[in-house]
Structures are given as C-alpha cells and as structure tokens.
Amino acid sequence: MGNFVDCCRGFWCGTKNPNVRISLPVVCFVWQIAMIILFGVFVRYDEESDAHWSEHRHEKNITSDIENDFYFRYPSFQDVHVMIFVGFGFLMTFMKRYSFGGVGFNFLIGAFGLQWALLMQGWFHSLDPTDGTIKIGIENIINADFCVAGCLIAYGALLGKVSPVQLMILTLFGITLFAVEEHIILSLLHARDSGGSMVIHTFGAYYGLTISWILYRPKLDQSKHLGSSVYHSDVFAMIGTLFLWMFWPSFNSAISDHGDGQHRAAINTYLALAASVLTTFAISSLSAKKGKLDMVHIQNATLAAGVGMGTAAEFMITPYGSLIVGFLCGILSTFGYLVLTPFMEKYMKIQDTCGIHNLHAMPGILGGVIGAITAATASESVYGHEGLINTFDFEGAFANRTPAIQGGFQAAGICVALVFGIVGGIIVGCILRLPFWGDPSDDNCFDDEVYWEVPEDEESIPPILEYNSHMVGKSADRM
Amino acid sequence: MGNFVDCCRGFWCGTKNPNVRISLPVVCFVWQIAMIILFGVFVRYDEESDAHWSEHRHEKNITSDIENDFYFRYPSFQDVHVMIFVGFGFLMTFMKRYSFGGVGFNFLIGAFGLQWALLMQGWFHSLDPTDGTIKIGIENIINADFCVAGCLIAYGALLGKVSPVQLMILTLFGITLFAVEEHIILSLLHARDSGGSMVIHTFGAYYGLTISWILYRPKLDQSKHLGSSVYHSDVFAMIGTLFLWMFWPSFNSAISDHGDGQHRAAINTYLALAASVLTTFAISSLSAKKGKLDMVHIQNATLAAGVGMGTAAEFMITPYGSLIVGFLCGILSTFGYLVLTPFMEKYMKIQDTCGIHNLHAMPGILGGVIGAITAATASESVYGHEGLINTFDFEGAFANRTPAIQGGFQAAGICVALVFGIVGGIIVGCILRLPFWGDPSDDNCFDDEVYWEVPEDEESIPPILEYNSHMVGKSADRM
Amino acid sequence: MGNFVDCCRGFWCGTKNPNVRISLPVVCFVWQIAMIILFGVFVRYDEESDAHWSEHRHEKNITSDIENDFYFRYPSFQDVHVMIFVGFGFLMTFMKRYSFGGVGFNFLIGAFGLQWALLMQGWFHSLDPTDGTIKIGIENIINADFCVAGCLIAYGALLGKVSPVQLMILTLFGITLFAVEEHIILSLLHARDSGGSMVIHTFGAYYGLTISWILYRPKLDQSKHLGSSVYHSDVFAMIGTLFLWMFWPSFNSAISDHGDGQHRAAINTYLALAASVLTTFAISSLSAKKGKLDMVHIQNATLAAGVGMGTAAEFMITPYGSLIVGFLCGILSTFGYLVLTPFMEKYMKIQDTCGIHNLHAMPGILGGVIGAITAATASESVYGHEGLINTFDFEGAFANRTPAIQGGFQAAGICVALVFGIVGGIIVGCILRLPFWGDPSDDNCFDDEVYWEVPEDEESIPPILEYNSHMVGKSADRM
Which site from A71, B230, B393, C32 is most exposed, i.e. has the minimal number of CB atoms within 10 Å? Predict the structure, then answer.
C-alpha cells in the first residue's frame, strides 16, 4: 500500500515509468477479446464473399464471377494495405534509434485499428436492417485501412514521445471519432471524399497535432541528439516514401465508382504526384545555403499532392488541373517544413515529429477546398447527364441537388473534419496526459531502448572489439 | 591419387572445405540444362495462354477477354511472388553478417525450384492425356511458387549452416516430395488446402527440422557471435515480415474458387493476421523483464495466423472464427520462440535458425486441424446447396462425400504431410551429411565471408582510416 | 562583371562549381510550368477515363464496367511503377555514399520524365484528329513509365558523376528522342516490342553509354574509394533487384494484347528470369578465386533475361525457348561485368557506373534479334489464323505482311534504336559538357555530400563520441 502511494507520488511528480509489461499485454488481450465477441455478435460475410454467391449471381443475372466486386477492388486494396503498413511504417523509420518503434508500433496500431474500424464503420454504413448484422466485403476492408490511416497520421506527430499503450488508446478513440465524422460528412452532408482529403487527412492531422499540443514536453531538447537521422535510416525512410508515392493513385481510386471513376482518380493522382516532386526539389534546393537538397523534404513534401487530390481525384478536374494541384502542394508542404514546423514548436508548443502539419493538415484542407470548387463548377456539358449523377451520387434523397449546392456541402465537410480533429484531440490528449500510461521521460524520447530489446551495435562486432574494449564497454552499457 | 586420398581423409575427418567454385557452377549448369530439355519435351502453353485463345473463346462462348483466368489470378500471383522472393528473402536478412546469404540463396532456391515445380506438379496435375504434355497457365505458376515456399521454409531452419550446393539438393528433393504428397493430399484424399497449411507449411517445416536434426552441429556456439542481429539488419527483416503479412491474404486466396472463394479467403486471412499481431505484442511484452518487446517475435509470430488459416480460409469459418484462429496462433508461436526453440536446441539437438517450428510447423498443424473441423461442421444451411458443392468440390467421384467424411480426409492429410516431411527429411538429411557439399565449419557459420565477396566495413571509410589504422588492418584481414 | 569573368574562367579551366541552388530550382519550375501549360492545351481524358464512359458503354454495347481497360492493365501498371521508382531507384543505392543520389535523382527524373513522355508519346500516338488533343488513359501512363525507363537506364551509366541539372536535360532530350524512335519502330516499321528490348533497353543503354563516353573523366580514380559498396548498401540494392526481377513479367505484359497476349508474355518472362538466376550464380562463382559469389553479378545479371525477353515475350516462343533465352542472358551479362566493363573503361574511355552495357545494351540487342527470329519463324499452324493476325497486328495497311517480312522489319528496328541512342547520345553529351551545369569535380564523384544535406555518421552517436573525439572532429568536417 505504501508502495502504491510512493508509486502514485512518483507518477504525479513527473517521474516516468515506461515499463509497459502489465499494461500493454492487458490492453492487447482485453481489446482483442472484445473484438472477437463483437465480431461474433455483429459481423458476417456480405453476399459477394458468402458461399451463397453463386445463388445470388443467378438471382441478379450477373453473367460472370469476374463481376464480383473483389476483382474491381482487390488490386487497389493490396496497394492501400502496402501504404498503411510499409508506407507509413517505413516513413517513420527515419530516426537513428527509433526505427523499431516507427515500423513496429505502426504495425500494432494498424492491426488493432482495422478491426475496430470494421465494426465502427460497419454500424454506420453496412448494417443489414433485416438481421442487425454488419455485412463485410472487399470495400469494407479498404475502408478499414483508410480509417487506420487517420490514426497513423496522428501517430506521426507523436512519434518517439508516447508509449504503445497510449497509442492503443489514441487508436481506439481515433477510429471512433473517425467513423462518426465520416458518417456526418459522407452520409448526412453527402459530400464526396474518395481519397479522404477531409475525412482522413484533415481529421487525422488535427487530431494528432492537438494531442501533441496537449502533451507538450518543454524539455524535449534533452532527447534532441536522438531525434535526427543517420545515413541508412534516411534510405529506409525512402522505402516508405516511394511506396506511398507510387500507390497513392490506388488510394484515391480504391473506392471510387467502377469504370471511369477509378480510372480517372488514378490518372489524376498520378499526375499531381509527379508535379509535386519537381516543386519540392526546387524549393528544397532554393532554401539551402549551397543548394543542397534536404531528405526531410524529399521524403515528405513529394507526397503532399496525394493528400491534395484526395477529394477531387474522381472529379473531372482535368489533367492540367491535377498538375496545378501537385505544383501547389509541393511548394506549400516544403515551405511548411522550412518555416512552419520550427515556428509551431517555438511559439505554439506543438512538437510535430514527422511534420504532419505540412504533409497532411495543410494539403488536406487545400484538398477539401479544391474538391469543393471542382464540385461547385461541375456541369452536365463536362460530365454528361449520367456522368454527373454517377460522379456525385445525385440519386434518391439527393436527386435534386445541384453542383453549386454540392460545393457548399463539400466545404461544410472540411469544417466538420477540423472540428472533430481538434475537439477529439483535446479530449483524447487529456486522457493521454494521465500519468500511468508508461510514456518515456523527456530525456528518453526517440529511443527504442525504452520499449524494445535492442541488439548490440555494429561497431562492436568481434574483430574490432579486441582493439577498442573501452568503446565496447560503453556501448554494452547502453544495451 | 594420393592427393585424392588425402582429400577424402580430410573430408571424413571433418575438415570442411567450403569452396564451391566447381560444385556450384556444375550443379547450376547441369540442372538448368536438364530443365531446358525437360521443358522442351513436356511443357506447352494451356488454352488461355496459347495464341489459339481467340478461337477457344468462340468455341466456349466466352464473351470477353477479361474472363481469361489471367485476370482472376495475376494480381494475387504477383503478391505471392513478392512473398517468396522479398518476403522470405528479407525475413532471413536479420543476422548481422548473413544478409547476403539470406536473401541471395533464397533467390537461387526460388529460381531453380519454380522450374522443377512446374514439371513435377505438371506431371501430376496438368498432364494433357491427348499428347502427353504439360499445359501451363497462370495457376501453374502460382502453384510453382507455392511449391518453392515449402523449400524456403526448410531453408529457414538451416540458414547460415549449409552451402548453396546443399540447398540446391534440398530443393531438388523437396520439390519432388512436395509434388507427391500434394498429389496424395489434394487428389487422392481430395482434401482442400488452398493456402497450404498442410501441404506447404507442415511438410516444409518438418522437412527442414528433420534435416537440421540430422545435420546437428554440436559446436555451433563457436559461431554464436554472428548468429544475432544488429539494429539495421532487424529493420531489413521487417521488410520481409511486412510483405509476408500484407500479402498473405493473396497467398491463401490465390488459387481458391473464382468469386466468393477468393473473396472470402482474403477477408478471413486479413482478419486472422490482424488478431495475431495483438497477441504477439502482448506475449512478447509480458515475457520480458521490463516489458520490452523482442523483434524476433514481432518479425515472426505475427505471421503465424497466415499459416493457421491456410486450410480454412476459403471455408465459411466466419469473421470471428478467423479472429480466434489469429488470436491462438499469435500466442502459440510467441510461446514457441520463448520456450520451445531453446528447448529443442538443448535437448532435441534441433538447431532451428529462424524458428520455423514456431512459425510454420505448429501453426501448420493447427491450421490443418482447424480446416478439418471447419469442413466437418459445414452444412447446406450455411453454404447453400451450390456453395457446399463448389467449396468442397463434391463433384465427380466425390459427389457423395459428406462434410463429416471430408473432415476425416482433411485430418488424414495432416498425417501425410507430416510423414512426408519427416521421412523425406531423414533421407535428404543423410544425403546432405556427405562431406563433399562444401558446408562451412562450425566456427564459420552465419558468415557471408564463406560464400560471398563481402565489401569492406563502413567503419573503415577513409576519414576514419587515417586515425585507426590498426582497426583497418584487422578489418581488411577479414575480407 | 569582373566576378562574372572570373566565374567563366573558372568554369572553362575546369574548376567545378557544383552549387545548383539557382539552376536546379529554375529548371524545375520552368519545366513544370511548361508542362502545365502544354497539358492545358493538349491533354484530355480518353473515353474510358472520362465521365462520359457510361454513355460510351451503351453506345458500344459494352456489358460491364469490368471491360474498362483499367481493369485489364492497372495491376500491371502498378508493378511497372514500382519497378521504375523502387526497382531502378534502389538498384542504384549500392554505393557507400551515393544512396541519396541514386534513389533521389531517380525519383526526380521519373517524375519529370513521365509528364513529358505523356506529351511526346501523345503527339505521336494518341492525338485525336477531331480536336487536336491527346486523349490519355491507363495505357498512356504505362507507356510514359516505359519511356522514363529509357532515361533511367542512361542514368545508370552516369550515376555519381553528373548533377541533377544535367539529369533533367538528359531526360528532356532522352524522352524526345525516345518518342521519335518509338514512332519509327512501332508505327512506321510496324515492329512489335511490347517489353521494349529495342525501344527501351537498346536505345536507353547506348544513349547513356555514349554520353558517358563524351563525359569521360580521366581522373575518376580520385573518387574510387567512394565508388564501391558497403555491406548494408548491397542489401538495399537487393531490394531494387528483387522488385525488378519479380515484376518484370508485368513489364513485358503490361501493354500486350488482352487475353492470351498478356498471359503468355508474363509466363515467358517469368521462366526466362528464373533460368538467368542459375547461370548468373554459376558464372559468378566460377570466376572467383574461392568460388565466392559477387553481389554485383547477383544484383544485375539476374535481370538480363527480362531485357532479353522484351520483344519476344508475347510471341509463341515456347516455355523452353524462354528458358534458353534466360540461360544465355545470365551468362552474357555476367561475362560482361567480368570482362567488358573493365575493358571498356580502360581502352574505350567509357565509364559505366552500373554496368548498363551488360544489363541493358547487350541483352537488349540480343532480345531484338530473338524477337526478329521468333517473328520470322511464326506460322499459322502455331498461332492459328486469328492468333497470328492478333499477335503481329497484321491488319489495315499491314494486312499483307508475312512473318518473314515482319522478321526483317523487327531487325531494322534494332538498328534504329542503336542509331538513335548513339547519335542522340553524342548530341546530348556535347550539351552536357558545357561547364555550367554544376557537375562535381573528379575527386568529388560518388559522394552525396555534393548535392545533399547528409546526416552525421552512425559512428558518432553520443556514447562513442566521448571516447573518440578526434574521430568525431574529422567526421564532422566532412559534413
């Protein structure tokens, strides 16, 4: 009991205990068991993944198995899956001693988040009214991956400063908030957002930034020596960058309309991403003394165009319109890294490890605005009669909506995403400030030693050991 | 002649000569030429890859080119291909000085194995009775990749302790054994095993473990300092882990039935893999003194669910059933790494470098058992009349089989895989013990120096050279 | 003004100034803005990516969205995209201190090149005569990626010796030349070259080699210590190798005919690549003193079969024919690395950093020859009546062409590619010799320091710093 009091005092006075030996297993087990029970009660196969498919086919007069939605979307799903786990994961390996935490906790968040997302999104979007169950198919698992992306973006702001238990909590609430804001934006406002500029990026980024603001660490510079990269960690991060960059066309087209919708979304995103590479290189070189390029910019700002095209990709934004979006996103994002991130850390107490404000927040809002403008200016002459209805789903209760009104609702969607991100971030941030979640102390951030068994350094392989024993002694102490 | 006697004595008394300058080229050339001749005699395009396809289409009244099996399976094939070469390859780069051997010999085995597999599997499954040739298409090359996976699993147990010549022999026999046991399990017993829990994983793992037992090296601890990882080699291994984890849904669905079969297999595997990540993290943290996670567990045990779903993925195991399988596999596999691998090395003389017993053997058997149970409990109310017939292929000679009987045959399949693995392993292990295959000595294991030109170390780049010349001298000696 | 004169004198007398702070941003901005304007004037969606698709479908009686070309080609496109950015990019990370430049400049070239290629190829192949615009769809963006590949091959010869500004110029002219030679070969000569043995590889390689010859650096050995690999950089390069190797079947089949064409091209390439791995390992081992394998061979020569099958992949070359091609390519390419590269550097003044002569030039020509022979020997008995017409497009103006004549035109295509590569290379090489493009001096090649902010070395992380302060001082100087 005295021990317990001591413990509490220690916690509230700021002595951090990053031992998660009890808390992490408990959280993992309890939540996984909860998932199993909830899936048992609620989740079933939909008609395209159920063994009754062949009967369903005959009923609906579907001529061939190839028209199963699986074949329309599975290749894109796999690309999205790679983005979530390798893309985000390796993008976060850039620090000299936080690669395990970057790719490893990303893995953990993703694996939990996608299960919870299937449930939360299912309750809102795929509930079968006849039996109260959620019917899942390929589109649901793409959406679950999307939902996870929001939380991984938030992790980017907090990288190296939080415990895996905090990340699990961030994910639990993040997915929940996501599903609600998504329901409001896509169903109630009937906004279109196939690549999630608003729903995923704006929400995820402000959620993470707000949490980072609440968890502000005034003495973080004690860990500064570990917060930068080494040569090979920058190369690892490029694996993440490139897989995100290459597969973003699949991300923005994965759940667009069959046929021209997916086709156009992929082409538009492909073009925008190409343009942003050039402007990123230009600004990066222009801003450095001897014109030297900065890997931070190349790793991140080249991707901003994917975010910026998240809403408009499936619209008739035209190929040159896509290039313009990419052009602007590359510039905006690189300037963010040069100017805004240091500014926000110094004056606004927001420590944004990966610079998600530059990669997701600003391009996300820009993407929402571009989407609203593109929607508002849509016309039957450009889209065709059927095309306009298909692209904006002007059907059922929304049959009378005009493009101009649609533009207004798109803009409203941005605000919803922002509000959910910030308010949600404040609430979850306060929860994460509680002192028993096992986060590292200020001089222990960005260090895999805290949560991982880290192998000995390469410097200490045998032939060198003999000659530099003092070095090894020191190095071994760190282990 | 005296030289020859000396040579022999040297060999039989244990002096190892790992020079493969003659043997490796001879094996590669002879076997590759044999492949060319056998392909020349036996292998032709099937009707979907032959230029007569357009005529075949008209005959069979196929309305569109999109119904060519290529479009059903090629995306999954490419994912499987990535798993075989990048997934398995990089998973084996975790050691500080055996990354070349890990990824490089994996490449060699794979490239030879798939050719031999096309022949062996072709003779059993794709022989055209009209002209005695093997007709190959997309499904054959997926199956060839699957077949190779069995041998790569076996390599996992032997990593760092065998020569490339031994690996070529292991592959030659492994593929042969695989094709026979596969024929017995899938054709004669008519068991279903689309992701190969039995056929691939159980067989491959026991084949490798038995060989490792026969090749037991009592003095392997002389190489212990090279058998562990360094920081960046663990990050490389995560590339392998993630590509295996992400693409396992494609592995288990690649050759399932068109339509709902592939769709359901992908979803089930996706869910099971997610669950196993959480239980792996939980057990890994729980088992360490300060709750620190172990990269070995994260790299391997998270994948066990893919193995465990290898048989049941295409069945109506239900989404929560998949989560339960994943839950159990993560726990089982992590416990294996914690308890069984050291136990087996100490008391059973099985040195299992990658822990394939935990990742493939146990989850493989578990997967077979789950498949048998799921099959035995299948019913028309769950699958529908047509669905049950399609899923279990209750057609032709097997039209009268009931699910309960099918369950029995599934269980029999596990035994066949086990027997083939163990008996095959004993025979091949004895062949590999012959002293002229160029394997490394006990103090030379886990070292790329033996079979590769290894570049100088990073430590010795010029600016440092000047100051640490003794270090360089030593380091250069190693080259 | 005096400053300017000094500057000029410095340039012409050989003092290099690799500061690209003005030139690189100017080039990037001006060219990107030019792209936007040209796209604005010329580029539109084609009927399959335009919102009028649903009307187009009804008109043409297309039964399902799945027959949109997107679903035939998008998975292959994504594989090609991975080859261009991760494959080529990581293959060029093998040097100890040029990984940033390898993967980063590859990224820049690719992103610019694909935009310019869409225009150049569009003007030749996709111009809509009714309104003078280029209509783009999935096939165009695959072709744009192909076009970029030509320039990236050329970069391989120049890796580490040129500035990013020079690379942008190389790409601008390279794409232009490519589009013209492609038009001549594919449209005027009506040769088939779906995987680009002639159009991409032969052209790209001779273009790069000729430029390298013109930019010959007699004192390059001053940078020799940086021109080799370290252990982990070789593992990074294997990522590039494997993604190229695995996805080459997609490369050669991406734009083949729907149905059997794509199917057969993938299978043939898959087989050829497997065979080349075995012969590469064989020759590599045979050529080294103790039979030790050389990573340079494994990383490169294993890929030669993909190049060698670039023309014939879609033909009925038979499975064993594919194996023979792979067999030869592996041998030819490995011998190239062993014998020709050093010879060419010493006696022909061609410094070929990545050995593109062995990986692209020779196998490219061989591939063209194999294609010509296979085409010349085609017959109706093998292809079927329709199959022959489909495979060789013997329609319209070419309806009367026979296979034998086709073979002749295929051979002519090789010559066109060669001439364009060499003549183009001479012209562009002379332009790149101008002294104001910011290339590094001879003792500064293969060093990322020149164009990149390079992080501190791993050796100097804190615990070691204290003990080796002299080392750190030196190491910091390099930064």
Answer: B393
Nearest to A134 by CA among B325, B318, B246, B270: B318
Question: What span, in angstroms and rounded, lies between the C-alpha atoms of C269 and C254?
Answer: 12
Chain C residues within 8 A of B122 when measuring between CB atoms? none
Residues of B in contact with C467 (CB under 8 A): none
Whether B141 and chain A come into contact, CB under 8 Å, resolves to: no
Produce one character per residue of C207-224: b if its CB has 16 or more CB atoms within 10 Å, e if not. Answer: bbbbbbbbbebeebeebe
Q: Does residue B376 surpass a pLDDT of 60?
A: yes
Q: Which of C99, C108, C457 sits opposite A281 (nearest CB)?
A: C108
Digit-coded pLDDT (tens) for C128-177: 999 999 999 999 999 999 999 999 999 999 999 999 999 999 999 999 99
Yes or no: say if B472 and B465 are a contact pair by the CB < 8 Å rule: yes
Is the CB of residue A331 less than 8 Å from the CB of residue A161?
no
- Closest C-chain CA to B449: C292
Q: Do B291 and A451 touch (CB under 8 A)?
A: yes
| Alpha-carbon gap: B324 to the closest alpha carbon of chain C (Å) | 32
Q: What is the pLDDT of residue B458?
A: 52
Q: pLDDT tier at B18 (50, 70, 90 boundaries)?
A: confident
Edge-to-edge strands of the sheet including B43-45? B43-45, B133-136, B127-128
Rg of chain A over all Cα atoms, to the nearest angstrom: 23
H helices present in C293-402, as ranges? 295-300, 304-308, 319-335, 341-347, 356, 362-376, 380-383, 385-392
For B53-76, give the DSSP string: HHHHHHHHT---GGGSHHHHHHHH
Task: Tell me whether residues A164 and B239 touch, CB distance under 8 A.
Answer: no
Alpha-carbon distance of B94 to A125, in angstroms, equals 43
B476 touches chain A (CB under 8 A): no
Per residue in B45-93, pLDDT (tens digit) is: 999 999 999 999 999 999 899 999 999 999 999 999 999 999 999 999 9
pLDDT in tens, C285-316: 999 989 999 999 999 999 999 999 999 999 99
Q: Are C375 and C315 in contact (CB under 8 A)?
A: yes
Whether A6 has a pLDDT exceeding 90, the answer reads no
pLDDT digits (tens, 9 = 90+) for C368-396: 999 999 999 999 999 999 999 999 999 98
Which residues of chain C have a CB within 8 Å of the CB of B108?
277-278, 281
CA atoms of B74 and A23, how far apart (whole Å): 44
Q: What are phi and psi of C135, to 5 degrees?
A: -105, 120
Measure in Å the smallest separation between the Cα of B196 and chain A Cα atoms. 21
Q: Which chains reach chain C with 3 or more Cβ–Cβ distances below 8 angstroms?
A: A, B
B457, two tokens: 């170390």
Q: Which of residues 169-228 of A touch C (CB under 8 A)?
A: 225, 228
Q: Residue C427's CB: how many other CB atoms inside 10 A?
A: 14
Q: How many angstroms separate the CA of residue A470 from the nearest CA in chain C?
A: 8
Q: What is the pLDDT of residue C458?
A: 52
Q: Does C295 touch chain B (CB under 8 A)?
A: yes
Tokens matching residue B341: 């691998």
What share of residues in chain C are helix, strand, coil (percent, to 5)?
75, 0, 25
The span from the CA of B278 to the CA of A168, in Å, is 10
Q: Are the Cβ atoms of C281 and B24 closer than 8 angstroms?
A: yes
> How many percent of chain A have pLDDT more than 90?
85
Is residue A456 very low, low, confident or very high in pLDDT (cuts 50, 70, 90)? confident
Query: Is residue C214 pLDDT above 90, yes or no?
Result: yes
Q: What is the dihedral of CA A315, A317, A319, A325, to 10 degrees?
A: -110
Residue type, C192: R
Residue B461 clears pLDDT 70, i.e. is over it: no
**What are B92-102's pLDDT values in tens digits?**
999 999 999 99
